[in-house]
């Protein structure tokens, strides 16, 4: 072992002894209550066929993009795709990023300048946190979904003001109070940035996201839509004004300094956007399944605490890392792919089983899950 390996090993040991060592999970054939493939598009043969056709039919297709979009990596395909995405999302412009992580880092690191203010919900995703850390602006967190705490921060904010939130929170599955947030930001002339990672494909008639489902698209400064969750492929986009797009092309470092997505990825993204209008029934099915699950919880699992009932992400609170991990293991042994979310990822005492529903889960999957949970949780009664 080299000296560097030794140092790393010590850091890993520290994590292991705290019971928090992460490892890559083995692929399983358990019933999927874990993935972000909310509509099942990642496994859809119909979408796969459309992607294959698009790739075969595309003339002079390069295997790779060959560089940053600012060098050789731009293409008519990328620009046309962005126009199509902007149109779909009711925005003036769109810019594709290699991932949601890149989009959030690019946005938050580049938009607010020194002397400006960046206000972030305390539960925003790590990618937004990392972007905010790189920003030279004054940064403050506000309490989760707390409008009065945000308003207090807005009152004392300096320079241009940006507010960053998620429309569907990834760990709790609850929704931001978007109409109220939009109104508050307008009153203080703050630019609202909404990460729609877990709302894309899930809310809106065609999966346009929660902002559009509520008709607020003209009143939100920037939205981030990711393609790796309900859309079943990979990559992300920022949608907003043409000025925002031009700014990001110039200043968002993950965009400027990284090789662009390859043409086959762009074609996959284009295929899924064209496929979404055929997914209305799947989206309705997903929400119907959520309603069914909640009904069953009400009947068979009273006295259990859930982090939200508003989205396909449902967190069953099982306080304590050991208890939460043990319950997850029992569920996995019973055939369900359900993972524990432990502290410090979530606050101590709020450890939970994160259950993600999908359009392809069946009512009988849910019945079995509820029955198993009942057996595990009420075993001492
Ligand atoms: N935002 C949120 C809320 C997320 O949950 C994630 C993915 N976990 C991302 C952004 C990052 O998106 P991507 O996986 O495309 O990098």
Fold and architecture overview:
- The protein is α/β, with parallel strands linked by helices and 381 residues long.
- The chain is built from 14 helices and twelve strands.
- The protein has a seven-stranded mixed beta sheet with strand order 2-8-7-6-5-3-4, sandwiched between helices. The chain has a three-stranded antiparallel beta sheet with strand order 9-12-11.
- α5 links the parallel β3 and β4 (138-142).
- α3 runs parallel beside α11 and α12 (280-300) runs parallel beside α14.
- The protein is globular, with a radius of gyration of 22 Å.
- The chain starts with a helix and ends with a helix.
- It binds 4'-deoxy-4'-aminopyridoxal-5'-phosphate (PMP).
- 4'-deoxy-4'-aminopyridoxal-5'-phosphate binds next to α4.
Q: Which properties best describe this structure?
A:
381 residues; alpha/beta; 12 strands; 42% helix; 14% strand; globular; binds 4'-deoxy-4'-aminopyridoxal-5'-phosphate
- Uncertain residue ranges: none
Small molecules in complex: 4'-deoxy-4'-aminopyridoxal-5'-phosphate
Percent of residues in helices comes to 40-55%
What is Rg? 22 Å
Instruction: Find the count of extended strands (DSSP E, 2+ residues).
Output: 12
Report how far the terminal alpha carbons are from each other.
52 Å
Question: What would you call the structural class?
Answer: alpha/beta
Instruction: Write out the strand line-up for the largest beta sheet, numbering strands in chain order.
Output: 2-8-7-6-5-3-4
Q: Supply the number of helical segments.
A: 14
pLDDT average, as an integer?
A: 96
How would a crystallographer describe the biggest sheet?
7 strands, mixed
State the order of secondary-structure elements, H for helix, E for strand: HEHHEHEHEHEHEHEEHHHHEHEEEH
Beta-strand content: 5-15%
Task: Characterize the overall form.
Answer: globular
GO molecular function, one term: transaminase activity
Keywords: Aminotransferase, Pyridoxal phosphate, Transferase
Family: Belongs to the class-II pyridoxal-phosphate-dependent aminotransferase family. BioF subfamily.
Pfam families: Aminotran_1_2
